Amino acid sequence: MGLKINTADRFKKLPPYLFAQLDELKKEALAKGKDLIDFGIGDPDIPTPEHIIERLYEAVQDPETHRYPTNFGLMQLRQAAAKWYEGRFGVEVDPNTEILPLIGSKEGISHIPLAFLNPGDVALVPDPCYPPYKSGTILAGGVPYLMPLLEANNFLPVFKDIDRQVARQAKLMFLNYPNNPTTATASKEFFEEAVKFARDNNIIICHDAAYSEIAFDGYKPVSFLEVDGAKEIGIEFHSLSKTYNMTGWRMGFALGNKKVINCLAQVKSHIDSGIFRAVQFAGIVALSNTDHLAELLSIYKERRDLLVEGLKGLGWNINKPKATFYVWASVLSGYTSMELSKILLDKYGIVVTPGVGFGQNGEGFIRFALTVSVGRIKESMERIKKFHG
Ligand SMILES: *Cc1c(COP(=O)(O)O)cnc(C)c1O
User: Which CATH class is domain 13-42+292-387?
Assistant: First the structure.
């Protein structure tokens, strides 16, 4: 007799993977040799800058880098992150106590609930959202309470709409601006409100700033920690993935409140053993020089303008995003986000992500990732023209 495999309750509570059907369609299309234009995944198509790769080559020759890294990461890496952060946002952080390197920011985001949530405890999570806020909460035995991000509110949560009882019970709140998937941005005033709300209700804020450097038209995203009092109640997650085209390298960091940082470090010390040291040395070089950004942003901007103007010309209701490398487009009337995504894939070979995959309030939208060349975006416009007949 075979083993009876029983999964844990927390496992059963994980959200269903809504992209499974689309993944299946995509696989079938590829197997048939169909030419797909893939706007699906937010994974840069442009390589990591050469000098960062060179530093990895060099570092990997040193056998010292082959050994277990330390849990807190190299001091030089924490210093480089602190220096970059202060240079960019004008906020000082102590590299000894207020910064923690992560094996990608997703790693820290999904582990932090383990430090703060008891079974049944609430975490406030935006909807739609980057999935790990929800799944990390569930894996820790917590309960996500969804804060709707509605177009009418510029895709910002409205704190006064949160049930008071829930607010009192909540231990954590996740925020993310510039936002994936909605591309919305947040002002310093919004973060001030968030800090006040978190203070009044004794909630730890976890702000995900993965897209802080991907912004256009002179707009510079603010850091949540620029707000007075923010460091007393929260931390911010940063990532090298999008800024330096380093998604595969797995490197990010958290910074902010030193007690919260220390608790996250303790959780991690039971789970992982840090980032490969050669990668950390490459990360130090990355954080010390952001000269590549101007060109990177001009590439995304050209793609954004081409896609948004093309779709607008076809009657789509769509805004030019100020930040992130996504375009969040209203679906055409008569379709759900899933239906439209399936038709675009099946009939026209265009892969997009249906908004509903990021949460119920993502329904009504599809997301395009601008990780596709200008030539291919032009081709996709021709195909979407055919779709319109
Ligand atoms: C891409 C992304 C990240 C980055 O994750 P890493 O683990 O650092 O690669 C974090 N948050 C959001 C919202 C993202 O889209």
Answer: alpha beta
